[in-house]
Amino acid sequence: MNQLYFDSMTVCSYLGFPDLFLTITCNPQWPEIQRVLRPMNLNTQDRLDIISRVFKIKLDELLGDFKLNEIFGKVLVCKLNFPHY
């Protein structure tokens, strides 16, 4: 965790502090997830792999909007910090 902090401070000292900080979460009730689980009579706890795949797809779409479509302007740095368990 310290190394991530130092890396972030290095980027900030070079490019300036961030203009935008996002935190996104996953909703197990998203229609995409329920559409897959309902025919098999499964709960969201039974297929966590489906939950994580849908989240990753939505995350990639969001980052693509930021980077390629530049909806908030030009992206200089994009760093993803996933917790290590």
Question: How would you describe this structure to a colleague?
Answer:
The chain is mainly alpha-helical. The radius of gyration is 17 Å and the shape is elongated. It has a domain at 28-76. The longest helix is centred in the last third of the chain and has 20 residues, at 48-67. The protein has helices at 2-15, 31-37, 48-67.
Please describe the structure with a list of short key phrases separated by commas or semicolons.
single chain, about 80 residues, mainly alpha, 3 helices, about 50% helix
User: What's the end-to-end separation, in Å?
Assistant: 12 Å
Please identify the oligomeric state. Answer: single chain
Mean pLDDT level: 83
What profile does the largest beta sheet have? none
Structural class: mainly alpha
- Into which percentage range does the β-strand content fall? under 5%
Give unreliable regions as ranges. Answer: none
- Cα-atom radius of gyration: 17 Å
Helix-strand topology string: HHH
How many helices? The count is 3
Please give the share of residues in helix: 40-55%
The shape is elongated
Write the layout of secondary structure elements.
Blueprint: H1 2-15, H2 31-37, H3 48-67
Short description:
Helix content is 48%, strand content 0%. By secondary structure, it is an all-alpha fold.
